[in-house]
# Entry
Amino acid sequence: MINLLYKLFPRLNNLTKRQKLMFRLLLLSVSVMFFGAYFKINGKPNTDLILGSAMILQVISIVGLASKWASYRTRSEVSTLD
# Structure
């Protein structure tokens, strides 16, 4: 799935490893949100915990994408550029 996104949107290949990690976390939180909404509609118990964890994951991933920490390259990325 993630490889398909990278092929459809080649600009995603320019992201650093940290940014890709945060992007994957954002995709995970969106899928958790859909599962939580599905379970909430069907009346399952404790779906508020699922939806709450999805919101926390989204906040973490958005803050991670917007931070300077994610824009820095890791040592392995810098060493492969030489």
